[in-house]
Amino acid sequence: AASWLRWVEAREADLDALDRLLLHGVWAHHLVQGGDPEAALERASRARAVLHEHDIDTVWAEALTLVAAQAQLWLGDLVGAEATLEPDRGRPDLSPVIRRVRRPGCASLIALQRGELLEAEALASAAIAAADELDLDEGNYGRAEPEFALAQLALERNRLDDADGRLEQVMRIVEEGRRP
Description:
Layout: H1 2-9, H2 17-33, H3 37-54, H4 60-74, H5 78-85, H6 96-114, H7 117-133, H8 144-156, H9 160-174
């Protein structure tokens, strides 16, 4: 993906605002998934600058918020991650998957890292229930964060079989079925 992104970036001057937003947003996602949260935050910042400069209305802006919050979580910046998610709290115009699954899933990891286990469990369980209600596939990426939070909670409670099953599910999701 990086070589393709570099190729597109070399032509950034020819891109319209939405395509520039997508370029930097995809870079941010690629970098956070590749383990470089600092660079991901820089790209997310560039994408947000394009978003605000041109007042672009796109569902991809919702995903950008989650990528930035994930990068902040990697860096241990819980205050920053919460602040990143806060403007979206209760927004009725967000897609149901973002509002009911992705955002609470991410928030469950923040609560977990803060040591707020009951809040983490409630958020993660609500995200999984919403994913079920929305009929999201078991391998849907939105299920990864709440499943991971519930796996960590199971470990904390010494429910090893539950933790193992949930971690296996997370691995199936993030590896997109590539495991043997």
